[in-house]
Each structure stands twice: as C-alpha cells, then as structure tokens.
Amino acid sequence: MTIVRHPAGEQTHDLGHRERTPVHQHSQGHLIYPARGVLSASASGQTWIIPANRTAWIPARHDHSHRAHGRTDMRIVFVTASLARQLPDRPAVLSTTPLAREALLALTGPDPAPRSREARDRLRHVVVDELGPAPEEPLHLPEPQDPRLRELARIMERDPATTATLGELGHVIGVGERTLSRLFREQMGTGFTRWRTQLRVHHALVMLTEGAGVLETAHACGWSNPSTFINSFTALVGQTPGRYRRNLPSA
C-alpha cells in the first residue's frame, strides 16, 4: 500500500487487490471515495460496498477498516465538525454526483488544486453540499458475531453461487437449521435468504466494477436466471446492473 498525505490533510491510498487496512479511527469524520476500483468498508458491525460512483462517510471516532477489490485508488477527505452536521450521524454510503466526484479528485489529486486554504474549504463545502441531500444507499451487509454464523458466512464468501440450503450449510458446520435461523434473526436482523441475496449483490457489484459482463456476473453470483438477477440487483442498488456498469466513471 502506498499512501500520499497532502499538506491540508487529505490522503490518497494505492491499494492492491484484497489489501486491507487495520481497524482504526480518526478524530475527524471523513469521506472515502474510490477513484478507481471498489472498496468494502467495515464499521459498526456492518460491511458496506463502495463502488466508484459512491462515497462512504465515516463519522469521527468510529472504528473502521477497508478492503480493496481489485487495484484501488482510495481518496480520503476529512470534514470539519460543522460540515459533518450536514451528513448522517452514522457510517453510510451516499450517491456521488459528477460535481462531488470532481471536487473530491481536485482535493486529492497528485497536484491538488487550488492551493489556497480558502479555495480548498470551498471545495469541501461543495462536496458536502452535493452529498448531504443524497440518499443513503442500502449497500450494507450485517457482520455476524457468533462463531457459527461467521463460519457459515466464510463458506458463502468463498462460493456465493452455492445453492446449499440453510439446513445443508448447518450440517457442514455442525449446527441445526433451527438454531441458525434463530441466530440470523437475532444477530443479523434478517433471514438467511435475504442475507444471502445481499451478499450476492455485494459480489456482483465488485465483479461489475472490475469489468465483468451482466450475464457472467449473474451466473458467478448464484443466479441461473438473468432476469431474477436484474430484479434482485435493482431492488437493492436502485438501478439495473447494466445501467450501473455503464455509469461507472473512468478513472
């Protein structure tokens, strides 16, 4: 990992595929934008997928970590407490407008411009003004705490296309289906089927961002019927996988 720290506090991280940052926190809230690639961010017991048309917001003093999917150019912009009041009081992923993207890139580029403090402050205001009203994206996935659920999640992460039922997965890890079903409701706030769909859509976002086609992604993530994949993806992301792929910015 290569880190560039700019004089005004912004950071640029060049992350290799599957590279992780350790769990950490900052005294200021900050915005995380992947100018290239796709990130996952974990905080508050959940994981968010951050593709290249989204920006993550992490409030001050929230423990969090990142993971890169593919070679990723991660940009970080810190936000003052007064500006932070315009953003959610919890970690969130927000839609990124073209104007917000250009302001984020200007603040974190190899030769950040403009150089005056006042001009940079204006750019931060532009970013927050653009992101503040943006809808929160439902791109989060609850992280299991129980070791039995963590083992099940690892199996699904390795093979999101598996058609194994909850009972069959329970047999593999030595836990009854009824117990697993109860744990899902208690710890994840959802049932196994919905959680599995969310997990598969997360994998689909990573694949599409890395250039995979819609049909290839559908099959790799467990959908034998592309129409069902499109419906599931659209319900969670708010746009079809084809449109999402076309709208990805070029880095």
UniProtKB/TrEMBL annotation:
PROSITE patterns: HTH_ARAC_FAMILY_2 (PS01124). Keywords: DNA-binding, Repressor, Transcription, Transcription regulation. CDD domains: cupin_NimR-like_N. Residues 1-28 are annotated as: Disordered. Residues 150-247 form the HTH araC/xylS-type domain. It holds the Pfam family HTH_18. GO terms for molecular function: DNA binding. GO terms for biological process: regulation of DNA-templated transcription. Residues 7-22 have a biased composition (Basic and acidic residues). This is HTH-type transcriptional regulator RipA.
